[in-house]
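WARN  no MSA supplied for this record, continuing single-sequence
INFO  ligand: zinc ion
INFO  echoing inputs
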Amino acid sequence: MEIIKIFDTTLRDGEQSPGASMNTEEKIQIAAQLERLGVDIIEAGFAAASPGDFDAVSKIAQRVQNSTICSLARAIDADIKAAGEAIAAAKMKRIHTFIATSPIHMQYKLKMTPDEVIRRAVRAVEYAREFVDDVEFSCEDAGRSEIGFMKEITDAVIEAGATTINLPDTVGFRLPSEIGAMVKEMSEYTKGRAIISVHNHNDLGLGVANSLEAITNGAGQVECTINGLGERAGNAALEEIVMAIKTRQDIFKGFDTNINTKEIYPTSRLIANITSIEPQPNKAIVGKNAFAHESGIHQDGVLKHKETYEIIRPEDIGLDMEDTLVLGKHSGRAAFKDKLAKLGFTLSDDELNSAFERFKELADKKKDIYDDDIRALVTSEMANIEKAYELVAMQLMDSTGGVPSAAVTIRHNDEDITDAGIGDGTIDAVFKTIDRITGYQGQLIDYKVKSVSQGKDALANVTVKVTFNENEPAIIGHGLSLDTMLASAKAYIGALNSYLSMEGKLKLRQMDSTETI
Ligand SMILES: [Zn+2]
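INFO  complex generated
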């Protein structure tokens, strides 16, 4: 069996999805779950991008034991140094450096000759080898690069110490036959000297197809993300690649992965909860409808013999234990802790206590509690963030034709502060009043409300995207409550707390956003 290495970049490329930014505590929870999933390499971030990114990568490096921890770095000394230092504590570590190799990128973006590009790449790999033995080099925009030049730069970086050569289709332009031909030629050329990897984007909806074609043509590693998150139309989806290999062993004879497929669904749910980006309902493998048989003929067939219409068993991706009633009012701490472990959360005692308290409060009001309720409960308040401000009480006034107003009490430094204000609508009144109390002026960029499970008594999960300083990136806040207005206030205050916890680390990402693979 040849094991295809699964390189997950949910925390790096996935985080570049518009609106998917995560705080450090959320990234650590995701990394821990990716480790349980059996991912070979976790690209934990871009250490040089900002002090906050550095912090997240280094905390993940300290935590994860069974996956290689990787940081991306441009072919610049300062980036490589930051990457090397951030992953220093990891048991297994890799630096992933890159430079563009397509004529259009070299000429217009880098303004460098091909020889200069090779020299820069060699220097980057040599310097990276001073920190780690495992160095990956990417030919950015390989999909539009000349194969002769890629062979030349590949020879040079392998000589300098690179062990994996990645050929990203950065703009998602290529068709499977083209990727197959490129990978075949490059893997035959580098045979025994380096592992060939692919990183396919989904601009034409071909990310997964291209990755599968690469595997049968000699690639030893695929880069992918959970739920297909990523820049623009996203990256190839991990769950689709892995399940295609598993389901079509007739084609992928001799190939396997280290992924524990039963962790696929829990991982997908965790990431959907944290990022508030739900996979489309008809998304392959993890979409809400992926195993729903609506038509009568299909239902009848499935009941008589599952394989009539089902090519994957729901239990293979860990879906069998889902959506059953899990816990209720009388469930104890031990059962709750056990459930959290099954869902992939590892919490400290303090975090567990506070999550259990929230669970008990919820169980008092809501009869049926589902797995997604529990996930929302934990991910909406990642406990490690210091809560500078806490909502104590809220009173709203709104009537048709009247002026909406809100009275809010917030705890700050052990002191309760109350104020009241009016707004164009109730939410506006609440957020403006919170601003008056805290003294921070937030700009609301996005507001989303979603019901967590079914029923009129379902929890409302509100996600806000707020900027507190126009020169800094937007912050995401989550709020969870049976009451939508309360959830909104919690989400807004949560975003402020998240912002304050990152203050000083959250400088504007200085790098040119076009420079990434
Ligand atoms: Zn990418």
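Residues 107 and 182 are 22 Å apart (CA to CA).
INFO  checksum written, moving to next record
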